[in-house]
Automatic annotation (TrEMBL):
This is Phospholipase D/transphosphatidylase. It comes from Pseudomonas syringae pv. actinidiae ICMP 19096.
């Protein structure tokens, strides 16, 4: 069973009423034709009894502006969600065409079965 879990690729599933983007960051200056360089994200997340969640890292507009190249900074969550969706789609296309990223924000996708620590 462990081997099956280690070799199985997780695929996202649509859940009615639940909309999320799971994202990561890459270096905006990642060159075209090369693998994009991932950016380490330090975050503090606490989940209590599977009910209460708090996120302790900065949620500054300046950072959202930087990570989305000015495209994803909205106070309206619905508009922000749509903007992030567009950025993710653009970056997926850019990655598939071996271009540089349009913005540092990318869809989180990790298919490796091993962990490394470069810190």
């Amino acid at each position: 069973k462990t081997k099956e879990i280690e070799t199985k690729e997780l695929v996202s599933k649509k859940v009615p009423g639940l909309k999320i983007h799971v994202c990561s960051l890459v270096a905006f200056d990642s060159p075209a034709g090369e693998p994009w360089m991932p950016v380490y994200i330090h975050s503090k997340l606490m989940i209590v009894d599977d009910v209460y969640t708090t996120h302790g890292s900065e949620l500054r507009r300046r950072l959202w502006d930087l990570h989305t190249k000015g495209q994803g900074v909205q106070d309206d969550p619905e508009e922000a969600f749509k903007a992030w969706e567009n950025i993710i789609r653009q970056n997926n296309e850019s990655r598939n065409n071996k271009l540089k990223p349009d913005a540092p924000l990318v869809e989180f996708h990790y298919t490796e079965t091993s962990l490394t620590d470069f810190d």
